[in-house]
Fold this sequence. Notes:
- By secondary structure, the chain is of the alpha+beta class.
- It folds into 2 domains: about 5-100, Transcriptional coactivator/pterin dehydratase (Gyrase A, domain 2, 2-Layer Sandwich), CATH 3.30.1360; about 115-215, 2,3-Dihydroxybiphenyl 1,2-Dioxygenase, domain 1, CATH 3.10.180.
- It has 5 helices and 13 strands.
- A hairpin with a 7-residue loop joins strand 8 and strand 9 (about 150-155).
- The longest helix is centred in the first third of the chain and has 18 residues, at about 35-55.
Amino acid sequence: MTDDKQILTAREVEAEGLAEWRMLFSTLHARYRTRDFATALRLVDLAGADAEERNHHPDLDLTWGRLDVRLSSHDVGGVTQRDVRLARRISELAAEVGATADTASLQVLELAIDTADREAIKPFWRAVLALKDSSQDDELVDPHGELPTLWFQDTSAHEEPRQRFHVDIRVPPEEAFARVEAALAAGGSLVSDERAPTFWVLADPEGNKACVTTWQGRD
């Protein structure tokens, strides 16, 4: 295995001295603040051109005066020297356009669900949230990078606890019924469709609830 295919640990990444970047889970993150939208867009153009030359591409989220950058090597499922090199170059480009790194506000949300039998409930959550299997057996991830990772925490068997919170997923109305059907086929149960198509209440085999919701019936 070459160095460019070797997954780096968080400690190894930290030793690279990437002052503007932080390792959060299995991805390198940076956030750059700019004086206006045009500057942030300029940084996107520069970073994109460099990434295209390398054939190694970051995930970029652009809003007014801010650019979020995420780096990982998807072919091996972690951060490699390819990401380190691109991170250094993006930091140089950010300096050229006058962008300022904001490491203090970086964070990643991961949801954890306690379960005594993850294989019994994973299919339901894979279906209802349209997630996919991760390289880690105890989690599911969003292939589009929009939803947080869902992590299954091992616990001893217990009776269904009193509900503290549940998951709502908002989908286009034309997709809702198919999502509900997929969740039911994956071992879920229908708790209530009294308010459909505004929302359906579903539960996984251990009683953890999720609502598939749409805008319909709310106006």
